[in-house]
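Quarterly update from the structural biology core.
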Amino acid sequence: VQWERRAQNTYDPWEPLPEIVSNAIEKCYKAGDLFRGSMYVYPGSQNGVDYGTIYLYPKNPIKMTAYSVTEIYGQCYGHYVKDGYQAVDFKRSGRRLVVANEENYVEKDQSRYDAYYKRMFDRQDAQRKQMLIERRGKDVQAIRGTMGMPERSGSHTWSLEWQHEPEKAGAGDGLGLCTEDMEEFGPGAPPLLGGHATGAASLALYAT
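Predicted structure, tokenized:
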């Protein structure tokens, strides 16, 4: 989750708040403080910088989507301005989170939207979990600057400048050649030689 700000009533780009400030606002937001009418946040100091006071209050109704909350206004005091305060708009970027006291500030159809968001998030989490399971014991291959070389097309020559910073001490890094019929790119278990599914042949050279 990232909290952002911009000058009030403008279309300026959103400016991410420092992590210490964003985390402090999020902690109060999760507690439902914003929807008590307004909230003051005191992020504290870090590396000799005092981040002053942040004051936020919501518009009614507030605007919520699957990944953002807007229509939040307020002021920044202290670190952000030399004198007085600065009026700003705030934005919460991150997954929708139902918090205490918000029922009087959300649109009447918000519960229907939230049910849809939950199904979407659950589906994404399940897909991500399955993807991580399928990657276990395998390496992800990246294909860049590929050039098709049909079978029996003669000799091919090229030069290669190796600029990759190897992971795992270089184990698994390599250069691969294959025919145009090869379709098994992506995470695969070593040694990754040959194309048993398509019958297409491949050759891989690995760093050791």
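Helices lie at 19-30, 110-135.
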